[in-house]
Design brief:
There is one protein chain. With 441 residues, the chain is of the alpha+beta class. It has two domains: 243 residues, FAD/NAD(P)-binding domain (3-Layer(bba) Sandwich); 95 residues, 2-Layer Sandwich (D-Amino Acid Oxidase, Chain A, domain 2). 32% of the residues lie in helices and 21% in strands. Strands 11, 12, 13, 14, 15 and 16 form a six-stranded antiparallel beta sheet that branches. A five-stranded parallel beta sheet has the order 5-2-1-9-18, covered by helices on one side. Strands 6-7-8 form a three-stranded antiparallel beta sheet, with no helix packed on it. A hairpin with a 2-residue loop joins strand 6 and strand 7. Helix 5 runs antiparallel to helix 12 and helix 9 crosses helix 11.
Amino acid sequence: MRTLVIGGGPVGLFCGMALARKGHDVVLVERDGPPPQGRFEDWERRGVMQYRLPHFFRHFVRHHLLEDLPEVWEALVEGGGVPVRPDGFPEEMTGLEARRSTFERVWWSEAARQPGLSLVAGYSREISLRGDRVAGVIVDGELIESDLVIVATGRSTHLGDEHRAPGEGGPCGFSYAARMYRAKDGVEPPSSALPIGAIHHGYQTIVFPQDDRTLSALFVRPTADSGLAGLRHVNSFEAAARQVPNLAPWTDLERFEPITPVMAGSGLSNTYRGGLNEHGTASVAGLFFVGDTVCTTNPAAGRGVSLGLSQAAELVRLLGHDADNRSVAEHFETWRTEHIQPWYEDHVYWDATLLSRFGGEDIDVEGRLPSDVICAAALQDPSMFSVVGPFMGMLVTPTALREVEEAAREVLRSGWRPQYNEGPSAAELAEVVLAESASLA
């Protein structure tokens, strides 16, 4: 069967390689094209805003690769990725510390060796139909014919949207400023099986240990907070990082060398758009949507690649059966409604309520509680961890938290509230940013 995969991120690569191994003749089209002559350092990846931003790859990556593409996992480790898991956690909860550039370099190198998979550079403009079935995709003005089309183009394109119902969601309300560093000789980089996060009064910070003695330091600010917008400038970022205990040790220029400029992440969103039409059916046989084309969430929780690969693995499984393509699309949508959509809905509410708290509002104790508050309350009532622990590991969906929501409510009724981590408030940090900007004027 001739299959066309549009998009060469992790989700598209997984679909392309896994289906090629199942006997499909696969063409994968990536707008940015393969790395120029294998030189990944020159690969700009203009179509992937998050390519240079921090990542942590949860256990889903290892799980799905070992199931379908085990040599890719082995290559990721051999290529510098660091397998990690918290003390006491089972082996199946192993995640991966790596830069996105390292992650994609290894994966593209493996994909180039995959029999039955062709990698093509080009801009995919339009789905071509033959009646009510896909006939292929118009790429750079030419038709590439296929029996199946899998759209894995990411969050910023609209290929095939006319064949599915409108989506929901929008901006999550947060923006990023991040910078990458490498530990100098004799300096130990951070050793942590998970990103090192902190919630301060009005913003968040996260340190991401990575491969090759590198790390990323990240500020997450409310987009509407113009006082922190200056964090995108190098001098302001460095001055602010020195004031925040969670970042200061890992951005000390005596110990860590910056290896990138400050990288801004804007346009972050929580969105969900299924693959069926307004009537809940597949308008076009052989057309599938997967990954960020379906669901995006605020990257702060590190769910994106995990949710994308979970979709890809399920789609590959469904396509492995000799079933009608419309039936496959409808079964796939039912599965996503249960396993993917709840994560989108969780982040919409989590982000909205966190922004409200940053704005000075108290938690509505008798209303629906956001997942971050429930998780924080579990530190006061450890009996909740039997549910909260699996949720934090994404082993159960957010709907499982309903079981312990009343227990969290009881903790809040006692007067307890989540505490902010040590460090300046957003207003105090904005003064640092402003002062640094004024000194350079």
